[in-house]
Amino acid sequence: MRKEIEKKIMNLASENGSSDDLFNLINSISYIKKMIKNGDAENQYLECKSPQHPRLYTSLKSELAQIVSSFCNSGGGIILWGISTTKHQHSRRDILNSIEPIGYVNEFAKEVNSTIPTLVTPEVNFQSKTIKKKPDSQDGLLVTYIKPTKNDPVQVINDGKFYIRINEEIKIMPYEVIKRMFSGEDSPDLVALLDEKRIKKNDQGFWILPVIISNKSSKAAKDVTVAVSLEKRSGCAEIISSGFRDSSDINPGKKIFIIDLSKVIHRGMNIIAGDIKIKIRQKGKPILSITVYSADMRPRAYSYTIDFANNKFSIKDADSFFLY
After folding, report:
1. SS3 243
2. Where is the Schlafen AlbA-2 domain (predicted)?
3. Which of 183, 207, 230 is the last residue of a domain?
4. How far apart are CA 143 and CA 145, in angstroms?
5. CA 140, CA 82: separation in Å to the nearest integer?
6. Are residues 244 and 105 both part of a single domain?
7. 252 and 196 part of one domain
8. Tell me, what's the pLDDT at 301?
9. Looking at the structure, do residues 103 and 160 belong to the same domain, yes or no?
10. Which of 223, 234, 289, 306 has its CA 20 to 30 A from that of 212?
11. pLDDT given for residue 185 in this prediction
12. 79, β-bridge pairs
């Protein structure tokens, strides 16, 4: 039985489509009514919750932690808040029964979104959306998509356990599966960050932007190269760097800085690759693009839209994508 569980989970961990597709499909009250009419049940990718009060009390937080861990470790999944279920007499499955809208659903969504990162480790990827009959209604449903982990298995902080999902059941992950998931990482996962709290303006009028590199994988990153370029820079009077070398002369039409890092980057040991220094001439929203290269990792670019209006700094938009 344990070997069957291991095989199923290792297969599910590499599948992204089913949970992602389900999140995209659940986008209206009418679609959820259709699910109820069809007799849909909780399954590998779907968990329904109908809290009596729009709050995450201690018992519900504990349950949510296990759900998040199990979905992350088993191909991802959807938590549908505001739907009650009924146990089917013969199949013993939890059948979607009725819609029970959550009061002040926007506030409840904020609580769920702020709580999830405190329940598990390492950091997980998730997104939420609310569904209402009317846009200005305070009541509605919440759909939370827990994305599958691409790296180490996800652990519940409170009890220190790893969970998996087999159909609609949550189980403690067998040791053999934990060991295989930890040893299964074969590439680093480098992230380029801009921390607004660390960005300052110096006496010469330059905004100093430290470029932080973080590794989310247990696989150490070696032979790391970081390239930083600036687009839509007409409002910038001067752009210089500290740590990076200016490679604009061999990249015509671009303002680009590059650094080769000699240090090995381990998870939990963030480093500052260097500083980009920008002096602003007029209002504008330049785009800072940071591309990270490393051995055994697909190059990834991070794009930050920066607003320097009213002598203040803020990040208005952020995006990331693989180069190939």
Report:
1. coil
2. 42-173
3. 183
4. 7
5. 8
6. no
7. yes
8. 93
9. yes
10. 234
11. 59
12. 47, 144
- Encode 48-84: b = buried (16+ Cβ within 10 Å), e = exposed: bbbeeebebeeebbeebbbbbbbbbbbbbbbbbbbbe
The string of pLDDT tens digits covering residues 51-110 is 988 999 999 999 999 999 999 999 899 999 999 999 987 778 999 999 999 999 999 999
Q: Which of 116, 117, 113 is nearest to 129 (CA)?
A: 113
Same domain as 169, residue 39 = yes
Cβ neighbourhood burial of 175 (10 Å; 0-12, 13-18, 19+): exposed
Domain match, 215 and 316 both: yes
Task: Give me the CATH number covering residue 284.
Answer: 2.60.40.10
Which 8-state DSSP code applies to residue 7? H
Both 177 and 223 in one domain: the answer is: no
Strand, helix or coil for residue 158:
coil
**Using CA atoms, how far apart are residues 210 and 52, in angstroms rounded to an integer?**
46
Three-state secondary structure call for residue 111: helix
Verify that 12 and 136 share a domain, yes or no: yes
Would you state the pLDDT for residue 195? 87
pLDDT tens per residue, range 224-245: 999 999 988 888 889 999 999 9
Regions of the chain where pLDDT drops below 70: 1-17, 179-180, 182-186, 310
pLDDT at 218: 79
Residues 6+ apart with CB under 8 A from 43: 167, 168
User: If DSSP codes are grouped into helix, strand and coil, which group holds residue 155?
Assistant: strand
Query: Apex CA 302: angle with CA 301 and CA 307, to 5°?
Result: 145
Instruction: Give the model's pLDDT for residue 152.
Output: 80
What is the pLDDT, as a whole number, of residue 11? Answer: 43
Same domain, 125 and 170: yes
Give me the number of domains the chain comprises: 2
Domain that holds residue 87: 2-183
